[in-house]
Amino acid sequence: MNNHTMEDLVSLCKRRGFIFQSNEIYGGLQGLYDYGPLGVELKNNLKSAWWKSMIYDREDVEGIDTSILTNPMVLKYSGHEETFSDPLIDCRDCNARWRADHISDNKCPGCGSSDLTDPRPFNLMFKTSVGPVEDGNSFAYLRPETAQNIFTNFKNVLDSTPHPLPFGIAQMGKAFRNEITPRNFIFRVREFEQMELEFFVKPGEDEEWHKKWIDIRIQWWQDQGIKRENLELYHVPSNELSHYSKATVDIMYKYPHGIEELEGIANRTDFDLGSHTKGQKDLNLTSNVMENTRSNAKLAIQDLETKEWVVPYVIEPSAGVDRGFLALLNDAYSVEELENGKERTVLALKPHISPIKVAVIPLKRNDKDIVAKSIELKNRLQRSLTGRVLLENTGNIGKSYRKHDEIGTPACITVDFQTLEDKTITVRDRDSMDQKRVNLEEVNAFLSENYSI
Ligand code: GAP
After folding, report:
1. CB 389 less than 6 A from any atom of ligand 1
2. Minimal-distance CA residue to ligand 1 atom 6
3. Where are the domains of the chain?
4. Ligand 1 pocket mutation, candidates 35, 145, 148, 253, criterion most atoms within 8 A of CB
5. pLDDT digits over 278-289, tens only?
6. What is 6-84+147-329's CATH superfamily?
7. In the beta sheet, which residues pair with residue 285?
8. CA of 50 to the centre of ligand 1 (A)
9. pLDDT digits over 70-87, tens only?
10. How is 397-449 classified by DSSP, letter by letter?
11. Residue of 155, 241, 319, 350 with fewest CB within 10 Å of its CB?
């Protein structure tokens, strides 16, 4: 049975400790969520898989981790100050404020009045003040995308870790947008995480690389466990493109609330490196304080063959961690009817994504020898496996299995009286519910062979 709703996912997330509403005890704050004990594990697993595929498995990408607070100049020259806005309309009768594209028939969706203002741009960037004096000049933005500090570090990375074109710089981390209508759980929020690669290529090779990255990224989401039939490509029409983009293809996912963007893959051309180079030149003209940025500031790379300086084009696969989390959860979730007429909820996550890799369950919670053996096994497995191993000492095997089906643990290991005698344990598989007796010495090999953990 796979006709579940967003409410089913929200309820599972809260009940089992994946995601909580942020600041809940004070009534919450709209568009913010916290990741709980299981959520943080799943989220970290997703991010690790991305980092590995982008950096460790390739020879042409370096990773960085940059500041969230951003000098306003960066976002002025990136074009965000001017263009990163949504048009807003106010209702003069009920004072409600709406995104212009949410208004139809020129009527307020709240009270039905036609007394509406003209649309005005509303910038989505958050500002904060820096330092002790709030004088209007001492402000910084919270970054609206992780990409910009990749561009501003272009020379630092190249000077310290040289690469010929094509090469990339990757970053994962928080981004902030003052969304007018945060909605659909963690789909559209005001504080979220992105996983972004800026891949620098020779101008003229950009379209070919754009296609390559679309293929790589759609395969990657499948490798994380998303079914191909739930993914679609959307070629963004020219009138919807961001100010920096020559072409964008979005990877869309069938969320419970509809088909929406999971990742965008944009051809950003030389827009950003070009604008920041211009920014440096402009500031040199007007400010002595910027002395240290005067020399050799051009964000370009020398072609080793022609010796010419080239401003590379950029292909940018940009994925949302939270949207990825929601897609993985939705794809893995199902409610199965069992032969005995009962139901079970299963989260069929791939083992590398599962928050708990293995649960070790003592058959009797008060049996000293069984519990000691379980702790010993748990510690041994924890030392050798990547990811969390849990000791589940509830004394109720059926309940423990149900819990671990629901949170996506691929294997449960039960330690029982027979273990004390013949050094074997039972491994119970989440998906088939089959149980196998395995020698304690062979548990690691068994887990590696069957679950790649
Ligand atoms: N650097 C390019 C960029 O930021 P974007 O399409 O605005 O492009 C990239 O954002 C990804 O970030 C989206 O595909 C989405 O997964 C995620 N994202 C954007 N806004 C979001 C929001 N308000 N809440 C959650 N995720 C968001």
Report:
1. no
2. 264
3. 6-84+147-329, 354-451
4. 145
5. 888 888 644 433
6. Bira Bifunctional Protein; Domain 2 (3.30.930.10)
7. none
8. 16
9. 999 999 999 999 999 888
10. HHHHHHHHHHHT-SEEEEE-HHHHHHSEEEEEETTT--EEEEEGGGHHHHHHH
11. 241
